[in-house]
Amino acid sequence: MQYRFYxxxxxxxxxxxxxxxxxxDKQHSVRVFTSGEAALTALDDSESTPDLILxxxxxxxxxxxxxxxxxxxxxxxxxxxxxxxxxxxxxxxEAMKAGAADYITKGTDDLVKLDAVVKSSRExxxxxxxxxxLRGEVAGxxxxxxxxxxxxxxxxxxxxxxxxxxxNLTVAIQxxxxxxxxxxxxxxxxxxxxxxxxxxxxxxxxVNCAAIxxxxxxxxxxxxxxxxxxxxxxxxxxxxxxADGGTIFLDEIGELDQGLQAKLLRALQNRELTxxxxxxxxxxxxxVISATNRDILQMVAEGTFREDLYYRLFQFPVRIPPLRxxxxxxxxLGHTFLQRFIDEHPEFVGKKLSSEAVRAIETYAWPGxxxxxxxxxxxxxxxxxxxxxxxxxxxxxxxxxxxxWTQRTRTAAPAPARRDLEAPSSGDGMAVSEPVLVxxxxxxxxxxxxxxxxxxxxxxxxxxxxxxxxxxxxxAAAQLGIGRATMxxxxxxxxxxxxxx
Length: 501
Fold this sequence. Notes:
Layout: E1 3-8, H1 12-23, E2 28-33, H2 36-45, E3 52-56, H3 64-74, E4 80-84, H4 89-97, E5 102-105, H5 110-141, H6 152-164, E6 171-174, H7 181-190, E7 204-208, H8 214-222, E8 223-224, E9 236-237, H9 239-242, E10 247-251, H10 258-270, E11 272-274, E12 281-283, E13 287-292, H11 296-302, H12 307-313, E14 316-319, H13 329-344, E15 352-353, H14 355-363, H15 369-383, E16 388-389, H16 391-394, H17 405-409, E17 419-422, E18 436-439, H18 454-468, H19 473-480, H20 484-494
Parallel strand pairs: 1-2, 1-3, 3-4, 4-5, 6-13, 6-14, 7-10, 10-13, 15-16
Antiparallel strand pairs: 8-9, 11-12, 17-18
Helix pairs in contact: 2-3, 13-15, 18-19, 19-20
């Protein structure tokens, strides 16, 4: 790694001394100037910024203080250390006020102090360059080009994302689980400059509203003061404060309880918050992106989601299509995931999908959407014995597979439960003697003229899902199309599985 230094001193002998001292390290590139005007000209002409400038205070013509002020106007982030034979406190204070990072007195252990200054400067530069590299790497990872797909539904998604980048719209991303809602949120964040940010995109702060207990969510959003509740041993900065100047991503926003919905609405309207247990009003300014796989309009109609919060969050709705609506994008994504995994793990070079595996990927329902496809491809690469990945390597017929979303939401006409006796064929068209019991799926038995309360239907649906999934809460929630937090809340409400309010 190369480090760039400027030495600005009208004393040519002292300038050469500093240059010689610095150039003993082969990683140092040094330019020496005898006047402030010459250094400013070089700074204007050069595209690169020096990592450290050693600037003499007393020079004929433009002195060091004036040179420092002009340099800071051109390059505000310059790291300048003043050098002078005058070791007075007043001169050092004036230099610091003008923007100098440090001060070296000639003849008083100046070379020893120089070594310490250079070491500190190198550490600062190394850290700065590493941060810039990581920022570029992350921004590249979430570039719009990283969202793969050429189908018509994806073209519509790209169009909406480009519109969202025009200004600081409050974006609401809707889509089934596994479609890539957070990826789209990060793409919007890293490809635009949110409120309050002057140069870069600022922090990207994620809050999973389904993963945090409701009683802790207010503290998670707004922070708390020390001693505000049991266990609050220190002040905590909330997610909205952390996101100031950047973006806050509210994932699974449909899982918020109504009490917190009201507090969130107030914070978003005023761009102000108060920590739990505190009195100070804190302002914040950030882009807000929310995401959900729930039907929020249906929740508004049912009274479980505030209408005013809906209009606040859904200023610009963006729908991500499920994988089953994306046509040949399935294969494009499959090959993309295959190539990316091989790029990261060169030991699997040569692995490819067989024609049978390609057909299986094309015809599979993909209830888990893009997330499931990525998992299946990466698993197949690892377990395939040969370079050609077969249908068996995909493991698409595992028992207990989650049903596709279309099947989860499909409503069939009610039919009476029946128990029929059928005689299976012996293979030659003749019936065997022992009948086999065939039972149709159970349905909710209702009288033709009866009206069942909605709450009763919810309870029965919950009990049935819990029973069929053998007490697996995650599976039951997935089959019902609700979040895990909502599942636990309803179980507690209806006393299912031993839970009781």
